[in-house]
Design goal:
The structure holds 2 protein chains of 2 kinds.
Chain A (H helix, E strand, L loop, with lengths): L2 E2 L13 E5 L2 E5 L5 H7 L6 E2 L6 E2 L12 E4 L6 E5 L9 E5 L13 H4 L8 H5 L6 H13 L14 E13 L3 H12 L4 E4 L9 H4 L2 E2 L2 E2 H13 L4 E4 L2 E7 L3 E7 L12 E13 L3 E3 L12 E3 H11 L1 E2 L3 E6 L4 H10 L3 E7 L7 H8 L4 E3 L1 E8 L3 E8 L8 E4 L2 E5 L2 E3 L2 H5 L4 E4 L4 E4 L14 E3 L9 H18 L32 H4 L3 E3 L4 E2 H9 L5 H8 L12 H12 L3 H4 L13 H5 L16 H6 L3 E5 L2 E6 L7 H14 L2 E4 L4 E6 L3 H8 L12 E7 L5 E11 L2 E6 L4 H15 L6 E4 L4 E7 L3 H8 L14 E6 L2 E6 L8 E7 L3 H12 L5 E2 L2 H10 L34 H4 L2 H4 L4 E8 L10 E7 L5 E13 L4 E9 L8 E5 L5 E7 L14
Parallel strand pairs in A: 2-8, 9-10, 9-16, 10-13, 16-30, 18-26, 20-21, 20-26, 21-22, 35-45
Antiparallel strand pairs in A: 1-19, 2-3, 4-5, 6-7, 6-8, 11-12, 14-15, 15-16, 17-27, 23-24, 24-25, 28-29, 31-32, 33-34, 35-41, 36-39, 36-40, 37-38, 38-39, 41-44, 42-43, 43-44, 46-49, 46-51, 47-48, 48-49, 50-51
Helix pairs in contact in A: 5-7, 5-12, 8-9, 9-10, 14-16, 20-25, 23-24
Chain B lengths: L11 E3 L3 E4 L4 E7 L4 H11 L9 E4 L2 E7 L2 E6 L4 H12 L4 E5 L4 E7 L3 H5 L17 E6 L2 E9 L2 E7 L3 H11 L18
Antiparallel strand pairs in B: 1-2, 2-8, 3-6, 3-7, 4-5, 5-6, 8-11, 9-10, 10-11
Helix pairs in contact in B: 1-2
The chains are: A alpha+beta, B alpha+beta.
Pfam families (chain A): Fer2_4, GCV_T, GCV_T_C, Pyr_redox_2, SO_alpha_A3
InterPro entries (chain A): 2Fe-2S-bd_N, FAD/NAD-bd_sf, FAD/NAD-binding_dom, GcvT/YgfZ/DmdA, GcvT/YgfZ_C, GcvT_C, GCVT_N, Sarcosine_oxidase_asu
GO biological process, one term (chain A): tetrahydrofolate metabolic process
């Protein structure tokens, strides 16, 4: 059984106990435990069911590479699926549940899949669910979703907060093990600013577990002193619990810091996403031990040798009392020795090598451990935990020589450098035949904009495994990185580590080497996605030669662990099946993030009130206090209408319109774009930007203008006021201000760079209030300050002065057809003017009105709206706006495009008014249908509705639309099928429904 | 005559850093050839402040000149003096091609102060805030999360930030969130400034 022992446990605090639950069962652990070590201390070997066959699974690793021990963590708003027990630090009252089991972990119905495994081979989905087609969505997928899959999706809102942090530094070191720390030191000694990212809670890596001597001190003492030294260095920052998640172009490094996962009650954000810019990056990401592929290698109790050593030394947990160690290298002997010294019974070391290992083997033998060379595990037996091991010769097909009872198996298939981060941005790999692993090729690093490498590697991630090599290379790597950014390293001696000679590893991709098909179909490569040796072999037989195709066909390495344990074993198996060398098969692509990061961290602070910027006018809070219903316009919120008490929105809109038409209304028009264009060439510039002539506009006057892009399509409209000889104020649509500003700057900076024009976006400088209706002048005269008579300020004129004691510009422009004044005042006094107008207007029956009333009134007048009548494919000519297109000008943006045959075609749909025959309202976006079918077999269309409203003024539905030959078909009735099954009939009429002569606005 | 009111009317927050909306300031956008004598004279003459170099701020008392782009300066003065300063600039510019326009109401200014001010700001802006590259006298036009913003350091622990008025509430909420309890990064505040 697995239990906590009285000795060891360098990371745990035995003086305090923590309680937690697993599947509702109470358990105890200590501060410093991971959930995995605490589960093992409570003899919880079975931690989950596998993805496809629902096989019982236990903890196999001790770090980020763990494929099996994924749990549902927390409840309600803090619930999160697929959390790795090996990287989850234990905290008091932690609640974890195992995944992919039904009805319970101990008894799982889905385990029947394991019996059917011969019917569920690689590519099963592709082979089985192809036909009949309709079955996929309605039959197959729902069943598969029920039976496969790991964690559940959270149902509640996440209760935690997240944030970003941007850092710019000289050198980032990913990995805080001995190599990373030494690299950081030598880089910092060379004068560089260094940031070290360590994914675990502890700096120092696995050297304290593996032991050794550096500069005459035990390795762990050396590391403690080194940490002390680094902490005192002003140019070194070390962040633990902060994973280097990805390396991208231009020295961009993503860090994922877990702030409160280990202490959920603490204040502050849960995760912090570091967005780092570095000149050089050093990956000191260590190495991952590989499992051995033997039958039953997925049973709970079969564990990586290094993990078993970690649990013992770091957490004081002895995973088994009677242990068998299977290995192809010397490192696993360290586990056997540690277990033996801690009191476990190490029954056998099965060393696949005929000649065995070096001095470590000698030491194990001296401790009295039986070592069988040239031996292998034929099969592990047991149900929910290891019971027996059948031992055979490595060079056999699996015929058992003996069977030994045991309760745990430690395995080691050698080590693979963690090359992920090196590879993220294009670093290339070398196959190292001796060590049987891929390691970074220093000659082909990820390159920056200057063509030079900006990532280098240190320590085990570099491919060095002997402590002496690691410390020497890491020291040098730091110096080199500093040199690469122009530092001049001073001479500092590299540390020297005592060597432990290790014998050469024997590549073992299958155990035993000639395992029969029965064993191969029980030898797991990818634990998380349930891919076995036999699956990869089948894929090879079926013609999948590319490792990328095999990966997708078998799902090897496609689970949440991204194949950290399975990749090399899988591609070696593929290479063997294809009879090609491993390097010619190559690896799959390594993509960030290194391990999954939370969606919350990616979103950062952007949630709730700061999910998105909300633009508020200076009068926003008044609208809010008066129960405005909002309409989003860009990032602005504009009042749609101001419903009273129980008033329906439609009724409120009708009331507001009638009030404007009969008395006076106020509109907050502050969101209108206001661009100031100034310079000797300003007139010439605006003549190019607008379709009509602007240079002839007199100071003090306004002119409506249309703006097209170079393809001729209408992009914006608005009123231009000439401020003085050289200055114009261009009003744009509310949503268009920023784009049109950018549009102007683009033309000025790229095409007409020699024109003397400056543009400034003064949109937010002014609050703008439209005072509209027959009583508008009376209201303004009551406030006083300016002569606003028709003689002094006629339609399409503007004047500067004071209204209610506030400096103002008054524009006599009308978008409603009524007498209308738009008053611009400094934004800081906008609310003051608004409230003054509301107060003074009481006797005239003033009411605020919203955007819907604005829309209806402009439609009653036949005025177009950018975004309604236009959609990026409409030219001014389509809208009957030929009067606003200058014939005199030699050129304007869009002119040439509008002369192209398709643009000039008489068959373009043109703007008309539409009046339903029965007074109802046409559905939005409805199409007018014609006779027959088109080439696609669809009903022929001959027009569409662009704006449609109920007009309270006319007491009927009115609409505008684009219709084929529309203006020539006045009086004709068109059919508009609605999505409600009804067919609407509407007559083609003039688009101006109200006050065609324009007498009401011109008073 | 009503009193002008800034977007958040001096709202404040005390967290890892002190966040304050610091009321209305006179702000004049001056676009022109920054090497032209008339433009330089207009800027320096009206403000009494020396001409800043690229990415720099020069200040004297309440007045400041901020370099905003190769052809744009921001002239900062007292809010009530802005018309006077603008008139002075127009006179000084004469016929020179330039655009000087009052933007005082278009913007909101914040102060973020305290030993963690850099850490708070570095949660929101991608600009390099390392003391070695960004110190008092430097200005950056960058962004705070999703909005454009410009900021400079008055002293090593005091940021001045300007953003558009319409997003003042968003900017304030952002800064308060970044300065929230328990979220200290300790990246800049823990590390002493490197001796150069």
């Amino acid at each position: 059984m697995s239990k906590r022992i009285a000795t060891q446990g360098r990371l745990i605090d035995r003086s305090r106990a923590l309680t937690f639950t697993f599947n509702g069962r109470d358990m105890r652990g200590h501060p410093g435990d991971t959930l995995a070590s605490a589960l093992l201390a409570n003899d919880q070997m079975l931690v989950g069911r596998s993805f496809k066959y629902h096989r019982p699974r236990g903890i196999v690793a001790s770090g980020a590479e763990e494929p099996n021990a994924l749990v549902n963590l927390g409840t309600g708003p803090s619930f999160e699926p697929n959390q790795r027990a090996t990287t989850t630090e234990l905290f008091d009252r932690l609640k974890a549940r195992s995944q992919n089991h039904w009805p319970s972990l101990e008894f799982d119905i889905g385990a029947i899949n394991a019996r059917l495994s011969r019917l569920l081979p690689a590519g099963f989905y592709y082979k089985t669910f192809l036909r009949p087609r309709a079955f996929w969505k309605h039959v197959y997928e729902p069943i598969i979703r029920q039976s496969a899959g790991l964690g559940q999706a959270p149902k509640d809102r996440d209760c935690d907060t997240y944030e970003y942090f941007y850092a710019t530094t000289d050198i980032v070191v990913v990995g805080g093990g001995i190599a990373g720390l030494l690299t950081a030191r030598s880089a910092a000694q060379s004068g560089a600013q260094v940031l070290v990212l360590e994914q675990t809670a502890h700096l120092g890596g696995r050297t304290p577990v593996d032991g050794g001597t550096v500069d005459g001190q035990p390795a762990s003492a050396f590391i403690d002193a080194l940490l002390e030294e680094l902490r005192a260095m002003a140019n070194v920052t070390m962040r633990s619990r902060c994973m280097g998640a990805g390396i991208y172009d231009h020295g961009f490094v993503l860090g994922y810091e877990r702030l409160t996962d280990h202490d959920p009650d603490a204040a502050g954000p849960r995760h912090r996403l570091w967005r780092i810019r570095a000149k050089q990056v050093i990956t000191a990401t260590g190495a991952i031990e590989r499992p051995l592929a033997f039958a039953g290698n997925d049973l709970p109790g079969v564990m990586l040798a290094s993990a078993m050593r970690d649990y013992l030394i770091n957490y004081g947990v002895m995973v088994g009392q009677r242990v068998i160690v299977a290995t192809n290298n010397d490192d696993a002997y360290r586990t056997a020795i540690a277990l033996k010294e801690a009191g476990a019974d190490v029954l056998r070391i099965l060393d696949a090598r005929d000649s065995g290992g070096g001095p470590l083997m000698q030491k194990a033998r001296e401790l009295g451990i039986r070592i069988d060379c040239g031996r292998a595990i034929g099969k592990v037996r047991g149900g929910k935990r290891v019971k027996k091991v059948k031992i055979c010769a490595q060079n056999s097909s699996g015929g058992a020589l003996e069977e030994v009872s045991c309760d745990a198996v430690a395995m080691s298939g050698g080590w693979s450098p963690v090359v992920h981060l090196w590879s993220h941005c294009g670093g290339k790999l070398l196959w190292d035949d001796g060590a049987a692993h891929f390691r970074p090729d220093p000659a082909r690093p990820p390159t920056g904009a200057d063509g030079n490498g900006f990532v280098s590697t240190a320590g085990a991630a570099h491919g060095d495994f002997a402590l002496g090599d690691i410390v020497a290379q890491a020291h040098e790597a730091g110096r080199k990185a500093a040199q690469a950014i122009g530092m001049k390293p001073k001479k500092h001696d590299a540390p020297i580590a005592a060597e432990t000679r290790e014998a050469r590893l024997l590549p073992v991709w299958l155990m035993p080497a000639g395992a029969n098909i029965g064993l191969r179909s029980k030898a797991w490569l990818d634990y998380q996605n349930d891919v076995k040796v036999s699956d990869v072999e089948l894929a090879a037989r079926e013609g999948y030669e590319s490792v990328e195709h095999t990966k997708r066909y078998t799902t090897l390495g496609m689970a949440t662990d991204q194949g950290k344990l399975s990749n090399i074993n899988g591609l070696a198996t593929l290479a063997n099946s294809l009879g090609t060398p491993i390097p010619s098969v190559g690896t799959t692509t390594f993509r960030p993030p290194y391990t999954p990061i939370s969606m919350g961290a990616i979103a950062g602070e952007a949630r709730d009130a700061i999910f998105q910027p909300l633009r508020c006018t200076p009068i926003h809070h008044w609208h809010e206090a008066h129960d405005a219903a909002w309409e989003p316009v860009g990032h602005w919120r504009r009042p749609y209408t101001y419903p009273r008490a129980d008033e329906a929105h439609a009724d409120a809109v009708a009331r507001e319109i009638k009030n404007v038409r009969q008395a006076v209304g106020l509109l907050d028009a502050s969101t209108l774009g206001k661009l100031i264009v100034k310079g000797p060439d300003a007139g010439k510039f605006l003549d190019m930007l607008y379709t009509n002539m602007m240079s002839t506009l007199q100071p003090g006057r306004c002119r409506y203008g249309l703006m097209c892009n170079e393809n001729g399509f209408l992009i914006d409209d608005g009123v231009v006021a000439r401020l003085d000889e050289q200055s114009f104020l261009c009003h744009t649509t509310s949503g268009g201000a920023d784009q049109i500003h950018a549009h102007m700057e683009e033309w000025l900076q790229t095409e007409w760079w020699d024109w003397q024009v400056y543009v400034a976006n003064a949109t937010e400088q002014f609050a703008q209030i439209a005072v509209v209706g027959p009583k508008a002048r009376k209201l303004l005269e009551k406030l006083g300050g300016m002569d606003l008579s028709a003689e002094t300020l006629p339609l399409m004129a503007w004047a500067e002065g004071e209204i209610a004691g506030i400096r103002a510009r008054v524009f006599r422009i009308s978008f409603s057809g009524e007498l209308s004044f738009e008053i611009a005042v400094p934004a800081s006094q906008g609310l003051a003017l608004w409230t003054a107008l509301i107060e003074a207007g009481r006797e005239f029956g003033v009411m605020p009105y919203g955007t819907e009333a604005l829309h209806v009134m402009r439609a009653e007048k036949g005025f177009i709206m950018i975004g309604d009548e236009t959609d990026g494919t409409v030219i001014p000519q389509d809208l009957g706006l030929d009067w606003a297109i200058s014939k005199k000008k030699e050129d304007y943006l869009g002119k040439r495009a509008q002369q192209r045959t398709h643009m000039a075609s008489p068959d373009r749909w043109k703007l008309v008014g539409l009046e339903t025959t029965d007074g109802t309202v046409l559905p939005e976006g409805a199409y007018a249908v014609g006779e027959g079918l088109n080439a696609n077999g669809q009903r022929v269309t001959q027009g569409r509705v662009t704006s449609t409203y109920y007009s309270p003024t006319l007491e009927r539905g009115i609409a505008m639309g684009l219709v084929l030959h529309g203006p020539e078909r006045m009086g004709e009735v068109l059919e508009f099928p609605g999505t409600d099954g009804q067919v609407y009939h509407a007559k083609i009429v003039d688009p101006v429904f109200y006050d065609k002569e324009g007498t009401k606005q011109n008073v | 005559m009503s009193e002008p009111v800034s977007a958040l009317n001096h709202a404040g927050f005390d967290g890892l850093a002190k966040v304050t909306e610091c009321g209305l300031h006179g702000m004049i956008t001056l676009r022109g050839d920054l090497a032209a004598r008339a433009v330089k004279a207009a800027a320096t003459g009206a403000s009494g402040v020396k001409m800043p170099g690229p990415n720099e701020v020069q200040s004297k008392g309440d007045n400041a000149l901020c370099w905003m782009s190769p052809d744009e300066l921001l002239v900062i003065c007292d809010y009530k003096d802005v018309r006077q300063v603008l008139d002075k600039m127009h006179k000084s510019l004469g016929a020179a091609h330039a655009l000087a326009v009052d933007m005082s109401d278009a913007r909101t200014m914040f102060c973020v102060t305290g030993s963690s001010a850099r850490d708070v700001m570095a949660k929101l802006t991608p600009a390099d805030l390392s003391p070695a590259t960004f110190g008092p006298g430097q200005i950056r036009r960058s962004r705070l999360a999703q909005i454009p913003a410009a900021f400079w350091l008055e002293d090593d622990q005091s940021f001045r930030i300007i953003c558009f008025r319409s997003v003042a509430q968003y900017a304030f909420d952002l800064l308060c969130t970044a300065a929230g309890a328990g979220s200290d990064v300790g990246y800049f505040s823990a590390a002493p400034i490197r001796p150069t």
